[in-house]
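User: Can you write out an input/output pair for a complex, sequences first and structure second?

Assistant: Here is one pair. Inputs:
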Amino acid sequence: MRLFLIPFLLLTLGCAASNDDGPGTPPAPVEEVKYDTTGVLFKSYKGLVMAGYQGWFTAEGDGAGRGWHHYQKNGRFEPGFASIDFWPDVTDYSKTYNTAFKYANGEAAKVYSPYDEESVDLHFKWMKEHDIDGVYMQRFVSEVKGESGKKHFNKVLANALKASKKYGRAISIMYDLSGSVSADMDFIVKDWEELQKLFNLFDNKQNPTYLRHNDRPLVAIWGVGFNDGRKYTIADIQKLVEKIKGPTRKASILLGVPYFWRTLGNDTENSQLLHTVIKSADVIMPWAVGRYNAASYTQVAGTQLPADITWCKTNNIDYAPLVFPGFSWGNLKNDKSLYNQIPRAKGAFLWQQIAGAKMSGAEALYVAMFDEVDEGTAIFKTKKEGETPLNADGKFVGIEADLATDYYLWLTGQGAKWFHGAGGYNASKPERKP
Amino acid sequence: MKNLAFYFISLLLLASCSIDNYPAPDAQLFGTILDIDTNEPVEQDIIRGSAIEYIEHGYASQTKQLMIFKNDGSYRNNLIFSNTYTIAPVRGNFVPLTPQEVTVNGETKLDFKVQPYIRVKDAKIEKVGSKVIASFKLQQTVINNVRKIGLYAHPEPSVGEPMRTALVEQEINGAVDANKVYTLELDVAANSNVLKTGNQYFFRIGAIIDAPESKFNYAKAVRLGL
């Protein structure tokens, strides 16, 4: 009786085997990569408050060979020619560079360069002092495609990896696709592979501070689904995500998406494919800079945040809202009416967003940005109003004169403490004790 | 001549009847809008209330059709065609939902799970002397301000802000404390032209959030004899 069954079994097996060869049948599952996470400090983005780190500035004489990159305008960095609105406060830096700008008392105004290890070290020291969890190192595809850009951003990354380990701050890489074209997707895949080898990025001993999420190293891709006429498509990003994850699911992915990604309106391309791509990622971070100010925040974000969070929970995606202290790009845009376009209001605007995100159920934050002085969203130490260098018939915007120069670092850190679970925080901005 | 006219009219009517030989709607769609946390129905208004927008697939026009909720949060459409629809409750008293694709075939039940903007808790409505007194707590689920609260009265159970003969309201325009007990008093004597002694009326507590296109959230209506 049992023997009688054997031919049937063989037949069944034969069928199964021939099915496997058939067209359209998925290939046998590949074993997913497993990482040794012993000693890894940040196993999830959840609970963390991290900022974006531009690191794109250079100074003449810093060795990067890029002149006054991102400080200058039209090749000049002198009164009347600057693309920054806030002036970094370099009092604590051990290495600084004289510029053609002067203070009212005639003293030369100085800047720093993140090409210098000691300057990046100082930034991570500030993060630790204020309990800010870490940063996403911006990697501008349009810059690192060239030799000089690659040399610069690799040096800044090397500085940052070293400092993040020294101060126990989380670090991750964010590809910024602004200005990219479809053909750049292959470059990104190649560059990402190169970085992993060059820095031994996922080695738990060498880089214990590299951020993990869903048991894998997290890499961010910023700029998918914006309807601002980009020269690459959502389908390009879909392929990029597939390639970066690979069949062995090597990495987790954070996608930087437009603010109205869920309803596919306003700043977002009206394409359902965006939702498909989002569902293939692990975390999303909608770009909120310029989407509201203090007066409109509650009306815009009040329902947007919980609706976004519910969508993400339903689809098993994590969500990190963006918060920013204010916005100013008068010098960058040559338009004085754009100084302090979105006022900081002594931190009230930043805290409104931190509290709004927390009270709406967010579990992590993205702070735009640590060191962005061109668009005036920097939280690091910058000069105060009345103490900025002179700038021909223009000016530099300072932080409010009665605040300490590290106030926005402190306030961001207060938000981080709240997200870490500390009590005593609510919608009222915390008071800084003298 | 009269007969001839009658003949032509009849012919036209018959002709128009015979052209419209499409099948009748063959399916029913029904359900309830539920609180995602408590699983309780989310109270609605029958006029100027939250709506259900649905688009039938297979037509290029993508025309939006509308259904309304009953006060108890239920809805029913007994004349709908079997097909696939994109459907979502909209312009409501809850955090916006993403439209979903639903296949309607025969008796189809579709509940919506939503996060109501405000939960009216521990609601009590009593007649004390010549007054009807409502006491309740409010729990807001979003950071937007609570705009106002109100106590509404009407002879029908579908009482609400848009459907009331007597009311008392209070502006809030701020965040509410979940532990605070709010009280609203409706003076029956002062409303004697619309609230007659000896009659029964329905009373309902409402609160509205300050969000785009938001609608009132309510506690269940209570019937009281005056």
